[in-house]
Predict the 3D structure of the following.
Amino acid sequence: MRLALGLQYDGSAFHGWQTQADRHTVQDVVEQALAQIAGGPVPTVCAGRTDAGVHATYQVVHVDPPAARPLNAWVRGVNSHLPPAAAVRWAVEVPATFHARFGATARRYDYWLLNDPVRSPLLAGRTGWLARPLQVQPMREAAALLLGRHDFSAFRSAECQAASPVRELRELAIEQFGNLVRFRLLANAFLHHMVRNLVGTLVYVGLGRQPPQWAGELLQGRDRRAAAPTFAAAGLYLSAVEYDPAFGLPAPPDEIAPSCGEHG
């Protein structure tokens, strides 16, 4: 039996998704909790390996447990063995052809940025923070130049192990919610640090340090050194993963926004 599980977690509590020696990771705690229910090891395969400090409102994993249990056991039972910063939200039985990583047709990330002169302790670790005011319209003009299928080498980390830097960026929307700014990015897949590097470049445009057309020039130049620094991990959320609807997975939540009671 193969199961697909939907996970949410607060990334500030972990050193990323992937198991590391002497590190506290999401994969570690999830596999330990699954083993408690299954009575044996349960390896996980995730849709996207999030970095340290990155959150998820819709991470998808698949597992092939060694023992059959009611679906509720893979939710409430597993959650009883997880720390408060992580939870299984749903479990669905899927065919053996389902693959959490290679079966995904698109992934969506949201980056939440607090744009306020004074930092909020209630949003620490949950959003990025910028004290100087941003101009949203220039950022939207820059974002439009980045859409489509391109070589995103200028927005790829030096540690990226992807075989190709070509990705199809299908959406890059920027919205304001009071003093919060949300960057929403949808692509067939993302390179290592690609979202945070894109956000950093758009922030430079929003601050007036560079004109909107700079984003297109960076894209064509393919030189990571010419772009803005990588933005903080704190505001980044894996918010949706798309699959063939035939698998019947629950839809991602419409909106889960960080809240400090000041922007709504």
Helices lie at 26-38, 76-79, 136-144, 194-206, 213-221. Strands lie at 2-9, 45-46, 55-63, 86-94, 106-115, 128-130, 148-151, 166-177, 180-187, 236-242.
